Structure formats: structure tokens, C-alpha cells
Amino acid sequence: MKKLLLVLTVCMCAWSASAQNWAVGGRIGSGFMADVQYVFSNDNYIEGRFGAYWANAGGTVTADFTALYNWNICRMNWTPSAGTWFFDAGAGINVGGKGHYAYVGAAGCAKLGIDFSGAPVRLSFDWSPAFGPGIAYWDGDSASEFNEHALCNFGITCSYRF
How far apart are CA 80 and CA 147, in angstroms? Predict the structure, then answer.
């Protein structure tokens, strides 16, 4: 618990130091997650997600953390009165688990969304597959196999940019 409070304190200090480059929001789909982004001047950004993930074997709910570096691939002016559309892609790591089960893997991300005109709100649909093992462990024994459920990580993210 002390580590969690320390991490939250460090995050709040960093956020208050340069709030104009941050975005916060939520993601729902294969799970429900808090989403935090730090945006660089060229619209590339680091994204962190933490929350509950339920696309697992047997429908169990696990804690899930994903860290990504996303590149802004292109911007499209399809609906100028509503906003600017974007396509972002990224790579990172995904870890999670519960009880006697854990998973880890290299994660990818593909996002299609819109930056609304006149509002600092961004809405996107994304696919974030992870490639790695799912590991079950019990009483000094373990078993692992490819975590195929991590390939179906879809979600809708809404974020507010400061």
C-alpha cells in the first residue's frame, strides 16, 4: 500500500509540474481501465492504463497494467466542423493477473479516433493485442501456454487533454 501511495504522489507531482502535456480518461471494452497519457510536442505520447480486465479464460477478472509509446501516424480532415480524425499506433508491455495466474507480453496498439473541435476531448477505438505467456502456478508447480485471450483486447477510450 505504501508503494502505491508513493507512485500516486510521484504521478501527482509530475502532473502538477506540467499539466498542459497530460491527458486523463477512461477505457471500456475488454476491461475497465483508467488511462493516463503524456503528450510530446509532436503529438507522440506515452500511455499508461490500469484497471480490471475480463477477457480471460473462464471469464475471470484480473488486474491489468499496460504501458505504451504511441506514434501519431496521420491526421485526417474528414469532418472539419466536428474535429480532426487521427490514426495512432504504438508498442509497449502488458502485465496482469490474479491469485495463482499471471500474464506478461509485448503489446501493440492501433487507434482510430477524433479530436473534437473546440473541446480538449479525444475519443478513440483501439485494439491493443499482447503476445506472451499466461502462467498458472500452485503449490510449487506451474504451467504456461500462449495467452490467446490477450489478442482480443479492444476498447473505447475517452480522454481529456489539459
Answer: 41
